[in-house]
């Protein structure tokens, strides 16, 4: 309502017609299309492309093509695919894309531990080049020398970044890379006849849970180190845990709290003294590029997520890319094939008898290797270090802004700066207002952004994890902090608004409990028909 | 729409602010009043109800009469019915009551309209403090006793409530337990207003109780429940300078762990697989004991829902209270003792089977020994083989809920306590341990 109207003026005036100034905070509103599932949009007989029937003479010359297929390869019934025209398909997916809050749409600093930096679009143009996009994995090496050179040179760059002797680019993503490291650790001890004795892997509460999960998948017993009073992994617990059964320490530094563990060399030494190996989870190395290296801290293995630190897209659980670095002692166990160079030609080396085998078909996710290579080459060594420094600067700037918000605290190690991310706590705000961290995150969605809390269990109560990376400007960070400040103000003054958020999203709230049980979750059309629509036999 | 009941112990917490460490018993309450104590149970109950109202829960609120419930409900902007309660013989008829009290058997139910919400008295803002409510704690004002709580709880149960909110402390939780019995199906939730909070039946704060009740109402009782410990300090011992807590039993509480989880990866807050994994670890540890092959190992389980679930996963049915002993086999386990006393346990452990003792922290305080399981005395632990034969079991989320506080032992034997302290592996799941600090 304009001031004129509020003052009781009956007729619209020129003042009313004036365009209102933009509000300080954007009032984002997400699209809501109530779009059906694509299967529900299906109309029998509709096609995207009508393929013309072959000419009679062609048909006669070819004969019954289907008859050439072995019986075992033939379907008994046609696949139950939706039948739609091209326009309907395009419209469907464009609508779904609008009901999303992707990394290129929002100030995506709230997905802490994920390093949501900008993925430069120019790097996609290299991937779309036919020499990458149309290469076949079974092509002879002589025809893909350029791609092999990129992979060889990328390995060299990552060796330099990590200090390790060899790097495999084959893992499909971060967890795949951790799994590869664990597989190499297992193979190393098997070769030494210690596989049975060394049945335990040590990790920490604030390291990524994939470390414990991969170790368990490989059959290891896992000991977790809880944080000490300062938030560092408890070194006394490590002393109690390390021993003749220890195969390895899998640890992150800085951990999810963003606090760099200055005693990391001591951790490594304790495990080495017990006869174990040390693997550095560098999924996110964004705050330490060009500043510290796994090798100097004494690690035997490390891994990077190219889709975090090295800017390739996250792909929402789709193919990302991981890289494993190892010392010379562990190099025989690297996945095969490796890319080798004899001074003239690049070739794929499959003859690696001690290798843990392939962890991904062929050579890994090559498009992401190309993107990561392009990103590193565009920055150079100095640029990488500058990226890390700006990421740390951004993080500590955002930290100073968030500290101004009532109800937020920054647990642990009060006097120390944070590296690339911070795990905050809304515990005080919750005690004052009853509003939960999750609810604050949902309310932030009404302003066009969001955040993630933390892994479970919540060791930090009412957690929030922010990681601004080097990509965001000061104005971006100010906007993000202003949104959180506004939501915190609402929590204190009108908590209903926050508790019942989001108000401007595609769906109000998902019933998370339906995702808890296999009896209710439906991730396929067939499961949806059976579990949600209640159709028997679907 | 489900029926939610409210009972308030108006004198709960009376002693806390004046340093009496409790409010049980008329003498303590009188002393608290003399020291200027003001009760806060009612205002905290009202905060819980305000939260319930703000969350738009579709519930029918039934309240015990007067200061036992209705008075606080009336101030929360929430319509409620008053359920008649027979006055206790100890307090006489009128003292705990006010005009809303109806006699037993009365066909009438008083319907009290919601109070008008003042502008700005939104959810979560502290409920306006109506002066008269403090009368409950002033000399000459209404007095209530445990018998009133018990009677009110039973009346609400008989009126068909599906969820009972009670405002009080450990003493009140015991009264609720006494009223309902350990086998009750009625889900309860404590609004924390007392001084002592050893029990695990309370929400983290009053508003959280309203929040959980709203979820419970919205899901029409579809919220799972878990059995939570009712504990209380031994008051007489406390005043002699000894802190001991007793485990009285278990009551079902709504299980609403993280309300609106946002997760990065899959995995539930409390994986139902965790206890099954713990059970397999414990069974294998028992079977590895020297001599276990010939005689079969003895597994002594301390009290608790974790150890009860552990027994169930091993194929044995034991209650959550008391100490039990099993001989685990392949798919089942033979129960050789339930609710065993110290002497019986000692005899069992000395009978020749190699023994393991599995303990879980009890009551949210982190105590492994010496609270709620005194029958597991130092002589039993020593007969089993000492600290090396003690396994600690706990899910990751329960450990995280300790907030970094250490696990505690107070076995009564300093030398044994010393052996048990330091960093010990806590079994949190299949192949999963956390190296955790144990102190005295």
Automatic annotation (TrEMBL), chain A:
Q: Give the record's GO CC terms.
A: cytosol; glycine cleavage complex
Q: Which SUPFAM superfamilies match?
A: PLP-dependent transferases (SSF53383)
Q: What residues does the Aminotransferase class V domain cover?
A: 193-310
EC number(s) from the headed UniProt entry: 1.4.4.2
Recall the GO molecular function terms of this protein's record.
glycine binding; glycine dehydrogenase (decarboxylating) activity; pyridoxal phosphate binding
Question: Could you tell me which residue ranges the Glycine dehydrogenase C-terminal domain spans?
Answer: 387-492
Ranges for region Disordered: 1-23
What catalytic reaction does the record list?
Answer: N(6)-[(R)-lipoyl]-L-lysyl-[glycine-cleavage complex H protein] + glycine + H(+) = N(6)-[(R)-S(8)-aminomethyldihydrolipoyl]-L-lysyl-[glycine-cleavage complex H protein] + CO2
Q: What does this protein do?
A: The glycine cleavage system catalyzes the degradation of glycine. The P protein binds the alpha-amino group of glycine through its pyridoxal phosphate cofactor; CO(2) is released and the remaining methylamine moiety is then transferred to the lipoamide cofactor of the H protein.
What name does the UniProt record give this protein? glycine dehydrogenase (aminomethyl-transferring)
Q: Which organism is it from?
A: Streptomyces boncukensis
Automatic annotation (TrEMBL), chain B:
Signal peptide coordinates: none
**Gene Ontology biological process terms from the UniProt entry:** NADP+ biosynthetic process
The UniProt entry, under Pfam families, shows: NAD_kinase (PF01513), NAD_kinase_C (PF20143)
Q: Which InterPro entries does this entry report, sorted A to Z?
A: AcoX-like, NADK
Note whether Coiled coil occurs among the keywords.
Answer: no
- Keywords annotated in UniProt: Kinase, Transferase
The source's superkingdom equals: Bacteria
Any one GO MF term held by the record is: NAD+ kinase activity
Annotated region Disordered: the residues are 100-143
User: Per its record, how is this protein called by name?
Assistant: ATP-NAD kinase
Classification of source organism: Bacteria, Bacillati, Actinomycetota, Actinomycetes, Kitasatosporales
């Amino acid at each position: 309502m304009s001031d004129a109207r509020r003052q009781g003026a009956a007729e619209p005036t020129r003042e009313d017609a004036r365009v209102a100034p933009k509000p300080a905070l954007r009032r984002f509103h997400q699209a809501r299309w109530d779009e059906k599932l694509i299967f529900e949009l299906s109309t029998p007989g509709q096609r995207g492309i009508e393929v013309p029937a072959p000419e009679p003479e062609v048909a006669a010359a070819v004969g019954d093509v289907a008859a050439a297929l072995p019986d075992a390869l033939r379907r008994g019934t046609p696949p139950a695919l939706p039948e739609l025209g091209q326009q309907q398909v395009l419209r469907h997916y464009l609508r779904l894309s609008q009901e999303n809050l992707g990394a290129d749409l929002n100030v995506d600093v709230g997905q802490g531990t994920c390093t949501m930096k900008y993925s430069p679009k120019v790097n996609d143009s290299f991937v779309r080049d036919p020499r990458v996009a149309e290469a076949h994995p079974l092509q002879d090496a002589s025809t893909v020398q350029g791609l092999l050179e990129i992979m060889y040179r990328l390995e060299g760059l990552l060796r330099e970044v990590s200090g390790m002797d060899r790097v495999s680019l084959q893992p499909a993503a971060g967890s795949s890379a951790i799994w590869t490291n664990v597989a190499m650790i297992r193979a190393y001890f098997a070769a030494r006849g210690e596989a049975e004795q060394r049945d335990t892997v040590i990790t920490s509460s604030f390291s990524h849970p994939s470390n414990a999960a991969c170790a368990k998948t490989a059959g290891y017993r896992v000991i977790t180190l809880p944080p000490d009073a300062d938030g560092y992994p408890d070194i006394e617990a490590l002393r109690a845990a390390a021993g003749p059964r220890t195969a390895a320490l899998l640890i992150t530094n800085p951990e999810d709290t963003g606090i760099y563990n200055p005693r990391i060399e001591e951790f490594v030494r304790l495990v080495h003294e017990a006869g174990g190996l040390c693997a550095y989870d560098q999924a996110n190395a964004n705050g330490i590029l060009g500043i510290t290296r796994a090798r100097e801290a004494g690690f035997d293995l490390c891994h990077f997520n190219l889709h975090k630190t090295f800017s390739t897209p996250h792909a929402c659980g789709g193919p990302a890319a991981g890289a494993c670095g190892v010392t010379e002692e562990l190099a025989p166990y690297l996945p095969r094939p490796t890319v080798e160079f004899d001074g003239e030609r690049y070739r794929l080396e499959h003859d690696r008898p001690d290798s843990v085998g392939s962890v991904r078909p062929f050579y890994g996710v090559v498009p992401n290797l190309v993107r990561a290579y392009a990103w590193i080459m565009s920055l150079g060594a100095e640029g990488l270090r500058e990226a890390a420094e700006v990421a740390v600067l951004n993080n500590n700037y955002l930290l100073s802004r968030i500290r101004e918000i009532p109800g937020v605290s920054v647990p642990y190690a009060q006097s120390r700066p944070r590296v690339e991310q911070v795990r905050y706590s809304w515990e005080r705000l919750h005690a004052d207002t009853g509003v939960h961290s999750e609810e604050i995150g949902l309310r932030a969605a009404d302003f066009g952004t969001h955040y993630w809390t933390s892994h479970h269990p919540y060791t930090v109560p009412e957690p929030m994890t922010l990681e601004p990376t080097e990509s965001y400007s000061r104005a971006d960070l100010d906007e993000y902090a202003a949104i959180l400040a506004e939501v915190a103000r609402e929590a204190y003054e009108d908590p209903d608004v926050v508790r019942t958020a989001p108000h401007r999203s595609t769906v109000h709230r998902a019933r998370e409990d339906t995702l808890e049980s296999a009896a209710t979750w439906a991730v396929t059309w067939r499961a949806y028909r059976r579990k949600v629509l209640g159709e028997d036999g679907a | 729409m489900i029926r939610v009941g409210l009972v308030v112990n108006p004198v709960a917490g009376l002693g806390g602010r004046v340093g009496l460490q409790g409010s049980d018993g008329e003498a303590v309450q009188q002393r608290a009043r003399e020291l200027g104590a003001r009760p806060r149970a009612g205002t905290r109950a009202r905060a819980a109800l305000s939260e319930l109202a703000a969350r738009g829960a579709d519930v029918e609120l039934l309240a015990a009469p007067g200061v036992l419930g209705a008075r606080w409900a009336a101030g929360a902007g929430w319509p409620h019915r008053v359920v008649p309660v027979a006055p206790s013989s100890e307090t006489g008829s009128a003292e705990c009551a006010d005009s809303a009290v109806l006699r037993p058997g009365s066909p009438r139910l008083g319907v009290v309209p919601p109070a008008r919400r003042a502008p700005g008295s939104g959810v979560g803002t502290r409920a306006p403090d109506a002066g008269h409510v403090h009368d409950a704690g002033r000399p000459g004002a209404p007095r209530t006793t445990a018998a009133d709580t018990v009677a009110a709880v039973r009346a609400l149960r008989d009126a068909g409530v599906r969820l009972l909110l009670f405002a009080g402390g450990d003493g009140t939780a015991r009264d609720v337990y006494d009223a309902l019995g350990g086998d009750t199906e009625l889900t309860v939730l404590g609004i924390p207003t007392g001084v002592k909070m050893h029990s695990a039946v309370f929400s983290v704060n009053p508003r959280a109780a309203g929040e959980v009740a709203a979820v419970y109402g919205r899901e029409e009782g579809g919220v799972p429940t878990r059995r939570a410990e009712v504990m209380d300090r031994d008051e007489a011992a406390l005043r002699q300078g000894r802190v001991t807590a007793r485990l009285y039993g278990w009551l079902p509480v709504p299980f609403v762990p993280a309300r609106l989880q946002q997760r990065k990866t899959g995995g539930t807050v409390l994986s139902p697989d965790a206890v099954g994994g713990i059970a397999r670890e414990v069974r294998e540890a028992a079977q590895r004991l020297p001599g276990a092959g010939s005689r079969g190992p003895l597994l002594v389980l301390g009290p608790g829902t974790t150890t009860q679930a552990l027994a169930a996963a091993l194929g044995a049915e034991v209650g959550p209270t008391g100490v039990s002993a099993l001989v685990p086999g392949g798919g089942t386990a033979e129960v050789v003792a339930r609710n065993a006393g110290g002497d019986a346990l000692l005899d069992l452990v000395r009978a020749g089977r190699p023994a393991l003792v599995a303990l879980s922290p009890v009551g949210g305080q982190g105590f492994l020994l010496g609270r709620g399981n005194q029958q597991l005395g130092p002589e039993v632990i020593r007969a089993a083989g000492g600290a090396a034969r003690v396994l600690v079991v706990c899910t990751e989320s329960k450990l995280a809920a300790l907030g970094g506080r250490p696990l505690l032992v107070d076995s009564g034997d300093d030398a044994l306590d010393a052996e048990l302290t330091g960093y010990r592996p806590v079994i949190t799941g299949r192949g999963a341990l956390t190296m955790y600090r144990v102190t005295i």
